[in-house]
Amino acid sequence: MMMTRRIIMQRKCKLGLSIALWLVSVGLICAHNEKSPTALSIKEGSDDHSKGEETLLEDEDSEDLEVFRPTDKWQTLKPGQAVPAGSHVRLNLQTGHREVKIGEEAGLKYRSDGNRQGTMNMHGSSFTAEELKEALKKFKEGMDDLVDTKDEDAVRAQFRPIEELKKDMEALDMLVETDVQVMRRLLNQFNNTNSTNEEKITALLDLEYLVHQVDNARNLVSMGGMQLVINVLNSTDIRLQESAAFVLGSAVSSNPSVQVEAIEGGALQKLLTLLATQRPITVKKKVLFAVASLLRHFPFAQSHFLKLGGVQVLSELFQTPGTEPLRVRIITVLYDMIIEKELISQVGMDIIPDSSHQERLRQYAEVSLLPMLVEQGWCRLVPELLESPEHDYREKALRTLLAMMAQCQTQYKQNPALTASLSELQKQYQELVLTEQDVGEQDGYFSEILALVDSMVVKMRQV
Length: 463
Ligand SMILES: *[C@@H]1O[C@H](CO)[C@@H](O)[C@H](O)[C@H]1NC(C)=O
Ligand SMILES: *[C@@H]1O[C@H](CO)[C@@H](O)[C@H](O)[C@H]1NC(C)=O
Ligand SMILES: *[C@@H]1O[C@H](CO)[C@@H](O)[C@H](O)[C@H]1NC(C)=O
Prior knowledge:
By secondary structure, the protein is mainly alpha-helical.
C-alpha cells in the first residue's frame, strides 16, 4: 500500500519535471526558430509555414494573437502572448511564469540539431529542489487556467507540426539523462573541502530530490556518492547528519540494489548510533525514515538490524521523554517488519514455490523479530500508544497489538490499563460510527477502527 503510493508519487514527480523541462525547451526552441523570424506574428502571411502549422491555424479563426515586444530586460509573458523568434524565453522559478527578453547571440547555446548543449546550459543554473517543486506547482495551476479559458498559448506560440513536437519529446528524454551531470556537479560541491556546510546541505537536498528516481539512486552509488553520504552521517554538524539521512532514505526506498550498497557501506550501524544518542527530534525523524526504508523488503538488513541491537535502540527511544512524535513511526517500522514476514509465508501457500521464493523464506526465517519484541518489552509499550488522541496512531497501535497477539496475549490480559483503554475506545468509536452512518457512510474509517478494537477484545478473551 505504502509502496504503491510512493511509486505513484514518483511518477507524478517525474511527469511534473518533464512538463517543466518541456516548457523550458519549448521556450528555447521557440526562441531559436531561425527559419521564420516572424513565425509568431501569425497574421502576416502563412507562406513559410509548413503544412502542419496551417492545419493548426485553420482552427484559430480570426482571434487575434497578441505579440509581445521584448526589451533587454526580463518581462513576464502573459497567457496568449506570442514571442518573436530569437527572443530569450525562460521559466521564472520563483513565480512559475514565463519571461522574455531580446536575444543575444551569446546568451543561448541551444543547437537546433537537438544537441544536448543547450539543455546542459539549463541544468547548469542551480535550481534548488524547492524552487523547482514550487515552479511545477505554479505551472500546474497555470495549466489548469489555460484549459479553463481555452487560452492555449503554449500551443499557439508554437504552431509546429506534431512531428516536431515529438522530436522535442525525444530531446526531452536526453534532457532527463543529464541528471547524471547534475548529480556530478552536486557531488563535487558536496565533496569539495572549500564548500561551506550550507553549500553542502543545499547539495544534499538537491540530491535527495533526484534520487527518488531509481536510476539516479543507482548512479549515486556508481559515482561514489553513496559512500560520501554515509560518511557524513556521523559528521559533527547535526544539519549535515539530518540531510544525509534524508538522502539515504530516499535513495534506498524501493530500490533493492541501492539498499544492498547502503548496508555494505555501513549505513545501518551509523543510523542506529544516531538514534541511540542525543539528537534533535528533526534528525531522529529523518534517521528513522532512512532506517525504515533500508529495512523494507530486505530480510538481510532486518537480521542485521536485530544483531546490531536495533530493537533495543528503538525501545529506548520510544521511552525517552520528548520523543512522543516519533512513537508512531517507531511502531510502524516494527509493524511493517512483522507483517512483511507474515505475508511472505502466506504467499507461499498460494503459489508454486520457486527457488527464489524458497530463498526469501529462508532469509525471513532468520529474522526472528517477535521473540525480540517480547524480550524488549513491546507487549507493554505498544498499548501506551492507544492513549494518543490521534485516530491514526491508535489504529496503528491496534494493528500492531493484534499482530503480536500470539506472543503477548498473556501480558495483555494482565494489563489493566490496556483493558480500560480498549473499553473506553470501544465506547468512543461506537458513537463515532453512528455519526459516520448519519452522513451515509457505512464502512468508514471509524468502523474500521472499531472493528480492530472489537477484535482485540475478543482475542484477549480467548484461551
Ligand atoms: C580551495 O580553495 C583554494 C584557494 O581558494 C584553491 O587553491 C583550491 O584549489 C580549492 N580547492 C578545491 C578542491 O576546489
Ligand atoms: C571526493 O574528493 C576526494 C579528494 O578530494 C576524491 O579523492 C574523491 O574521489 C572524491 N569523491 C567523489 C565521489 O567525488
Ligand atoms: C565517522 O566514523 C568514521 C568511522 O566509522 C570515522 O573514521 C570518522 O572519524 C568519524 N567522523 C566523525 C566526525 O566522528
